[in-house]
Write a structure and sequence with these properties.
191 residues, mainly alpha, Rna Polymerase Sigma Factor, Chain: A, Arc Repressor Mutant, subunit A
Length: 191
């Protein structure tokens, strides 16, 4: 299998097939990135396309200093920030926050969503980049332009805060059951 970086360099050299392969590899994950943050499928699709358009426009300036994955998410973060600014200035709050996947219990979805909303915006973003996008600590640090140790400490604090919020909800509503208030362990525990 050809590496992403080799594909990007091939695309830079004019290979349309290399771009199509990169698109196939990252289209779904970028769509998920935008979809989880905006909860608007049409805008998520538009911003996914805009991410790849930005790659096309900047291909001549691409330098393989970071992983292509990090490069794509960097573009996506900038587009997301612009979209959020546009929503704020237009007075539109956008649609409600996305609902995380849980065990199918509607109450669990609501509690996890509310707990995520209580997190600091930066810590929530770090948590989402790690758990949903599966980015490494160093990739997150590079994207957000903060030290790796800051990523680690904020991720640790956000996980503790999320767990605390979920446990307090479970205690106040025993009908949720023990499993609804406990985040699953592991890197995919937020899905």
């Amino acid at each position: 299998m050809t590496s992403d970086e080799a594909l990007m360099l091939a695309f830079q050299g004019g290979s349309r097939a290399a771009f199509e392969e990169l698109f196939a590899r990252y289209h779904r994950s970028l769509y998920g990135f935008f979809g989880r943050r905006l909860n608007n499928p049409e805008r998520a699709q538009d911003l996914t396309q805009e991410t790849f358009l930005a790659v096309i426009r900047a291909v001549s300036r691409y330098e393989p200093r970071a992983l292509v994955r990090t490069y794509l998410y960097g573009i996506a973060l900038k587009l997301l920030a612009a979209e959020r600014r546009k929503l704020l200035t237009s007075g539109t709050s956008g649609q409600p926050a996305p609902e995380p996947k849980t065990d199918g219990n509607p109450d669990s979805v609501l509690w996890v969503r509310q707990a995520m909303e209580k997190l600091d915006a930066t810590e929530r973003e770090i948590l989402m980049l790690r758990e949903y996008e599966q980015l490494s600590y160093s990739d997150i640090a590079e994207l957000l332009r903060i030290p790796v140790n800051t990523v680690r400490s904020r991720l640790f604090r956000s996980r503790l805060a999320l767990k605390s919020h979920l446990e307090s909800r479970t205690k106040s509503n025993p009908s949720l059951g023990a499993s609804a208030g406990q985040p699953r362990s592991g890197r995919r525990g937020m899905q």
